[in-house]
């Protein structure tokens, strides 16, 4: 994208915002406060993708596509609402997209680092929840433990959103599947999504999306680094098409090839062991040549180049890595709307 292309506003939009909003209201391609879809997860927690039904996921993704097309410009459904962003782990994409997303929807986000609140150390998680519920309208947590999110949700009478935990990364998967749908359409049944690398929170959440969408999910990982056993067992019970293997040949013909870092935050002490275990699992341009001709490569970023992938892969014609990063904004805005869209401002 050129810098000139980044500023497509008309003179009316730039200099006469009220008139521009009126123009958009008269354009059937743009929504108005009266034509917004009903929030489908109003007031609920989002700790896992399985907190959604397939129908709710469909609505959220449709909203994300609509937002990306610009059909929500000028509409501020979260005006007067606030979202607390709790970060035990560092963040670029999660912090920026939730913060900007709340702003674009008319709300406000405030960032709370672990140094400021000390979840479970300076203050009990339950006490943090009871304080925040009296000041803000929702909480997003990017934390070490899934249990921390459940404890926040159990003690706060406001929605809690999982921005990442050791077990799951459900907000990321919304952006991932928005990106996949941009390539293959909304009916993904039977499409092959192959995840290669550590059986971590991303792998677990990919299995959940296989349950919800009907994609065939293959996890390619070394022995000893498999996804969570209870997640796999639940997928089998639900009839999902999930394959677990350490055979790199399973990548051939994939519609989507997905990878993530081998060494997540908090695993630095295992770095050398993990690098040896994952040798051969690096996504390269040669590996991308083996996926489907119209297949795509995804990575949730940040990329540790020289480990799970190389720059030539993220810059490859089959890469949609930076479209995927952009879609964090649209997908999370859609999620915020459907969770918080019916809440009344406190003042």
TrEMBL record:
Pathway: Amino-acid biosynthesis; L-arginine biosynthesis; L-arginine from L-ornithine and carbamoyl phosphate: step 1/3. InterPro entries: Asp/Orn_carbamoyltranf_P-bd, Asp/Orn_carbamoylTrfase, Asp/Orn_carbamoylTrfase_sf, Asp_carbamoyltransf_Asp/Orn-bd, Orn/put_carbamltrans, OTCase_ArgI. It is an enzyme of class 2 (transferase). It catalyses: carbamoyl phosphate + L-ornithine = L-citrulline + phosphate + H(+). L-ornithine binds at residues 201, 260, 264-265. Residues 11-21 have a biased composition (Low complexity). Residues 1-21 are annotated as: Disordered. It is found in: Cytoplasm. Residues 44-182 form the Aspartate/ornithine carbamoyltransferase carbamoyl-P binding domain. Carbamoyl phosphate binds at residues 142, 169-172, 300-301, 328. Pfam families: OTCace, OTCace_N. Keywords: Cytoplasm, Transferase. Its EC number is 2.1.3.3. Residues 190-338 form the Aspartate/ornithine carbamoyltransferase Asp/Orn-binding domain. Belongs to the aspartate/ornithine carbamoyltransferase superfamily. OTCase family. PANTHER family: ORNITHINE CARBAMOYLTRANSFERASE, MITOCHONDRIAL, ORNITHINE TRANSCARBAMYLASE, MITOCHONDRIAL. This is Ornithine carbamoyltransferase. It comes from Deinococcus aluminii.
